[in-house]
């Protein structure tokens, strides 16, 4: 029973990271109807920027954390404006090729600028056990707390602010949004920026556990994709729930069924099963097009 509780708590902590990535994936998907295969590499590169601000520039962790979020927000915005805006009407295959190119560029740039040696990334929470008798480290509890706070801020932003409402309108009904004066192109670019900022938070939370390397997000992004598919690609709330579900299921299956070496296959199986039996996900809406 203790092992079950331990794996559940650990799964919730991992699920917090997958929820962040799943939310970022859904935001990009709603903007352009495609997966951003470079989402993990963008998050990794942002984490290297945070490491440089702390280790080289000497900023305290909190200052570097928020500075990295702002830099990632601007960087994601610029990627959309410079790279994707000119090919907005290009075929799907062109977008996929650009995503793969961005994946390679960010991965190679991280190795070139910061080298491939694994680096320790600091945590403000520490790694000691949080509560006696409860198998949950302070950092993993902090991961869940930071994720929930960030998700609450994002919910309030989209629910109550004019810019957030405009972004929702631009994603849901771009033609109608243009008719009421919303700059849809700008809102889509801002969505990219927010997705990059959310990914940066995920990278900074997972780096103290996995060490900082150019390949640190490869497997994690697959779990994020699984969370987005399970929750629903049209539902940000569903993506968050899906991320936590994937985190818990991954730990349960890896510990009690398939073993730790095959945990990654759990995400692949989840993606296939959901796409076969419930393509819209648990919370996604079914889109019907009249032809």
TrEMBL record:
A GO CC annotation given for this chain: plasma membrane
GO terms (BP aspect): amino acid transport
Family: Belongs to the binding-protein-dependent transport system permease family. LivHM subfamily.
Origin superkingdom: Bacteria
Entry membrane topology: Multi-pass membrane protein
Range of residues in the leader sequence: none
Coiled-coil parts of chain: none
Pfam (any one): BPD_transp_2
Compartmental location: Cell membrane
Keywords, alphabetical: Amino-acid transport, Cell membrane, Membrane, Transmembrane, Transmembrane helix, Transport
Name of the protein described by the UniProt record: Branched-chain amino acid ABC transporter permease
Transmembrane spans: 12-29, 49-73, 93-116, 137-158, 186-209, 221-246, 266-288
MF annotations from Gene Ontology: transmembrane transporter activity
Chief place of localization: membrane
């Amino acid at each position: 029973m203790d092992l079950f509780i331990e794996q559940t708590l650990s799964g919730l902590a991992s699920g917090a990271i997958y929820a962040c990535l799943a939310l970022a994936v859904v935001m990009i998907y709603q903007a352009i109807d495609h997966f951003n295969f470079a989402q993990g590499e963008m998050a990794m590169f942002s984490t290297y920027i945070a490491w440089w601000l702390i280790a080289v520039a000497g900023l305290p962790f909190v200052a570097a954390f928020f500075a990295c979020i702002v830099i990632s927000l601007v960087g994601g915005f610029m990627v959309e404006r410079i790279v994707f805006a000119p090919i907005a009407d290009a075929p799907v295959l062109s977008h996929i090729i650009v995503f793969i190119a961005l994946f390679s560029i960010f991965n190679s740039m991280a190795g070139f600028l910061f080298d491939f040696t694994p680096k320790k990334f600091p945590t403000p929470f520490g790694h000691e056990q949080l509560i006696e008798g409860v198998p949950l480290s302070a950092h993993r509890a902090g991961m869940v707390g930071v994720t929930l706070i960030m998700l609450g801020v994002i919910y309030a932003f989209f629910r109550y602010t004019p810019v957030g409402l405009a972004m929702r309108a631009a994603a849901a009904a771009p033609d109608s949004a243009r008719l009421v004066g919303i700059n849809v192109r700008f809102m889509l670019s801002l969505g990219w920026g927010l997705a990059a900022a959310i990914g940066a938070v995920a990278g900074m939370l997972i780096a103290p556990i996995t060490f900082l390397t150019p390949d640190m997000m490869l497997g994690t992004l697959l779990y994020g994709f699984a969370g987005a598919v399970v929750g629903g690609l049209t539902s940000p709330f569903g993506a968050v729930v899906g991320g936590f579900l994937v985190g818990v299921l991954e730990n349960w299956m890896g510990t009690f069924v398939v073993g730790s070496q095959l945990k990654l296959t759990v995400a692949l199986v989840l993606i296939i099963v959901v796409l076969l039996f419930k393509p819209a996900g648990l919370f996604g809406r079914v889109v019907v097009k009249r032809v």
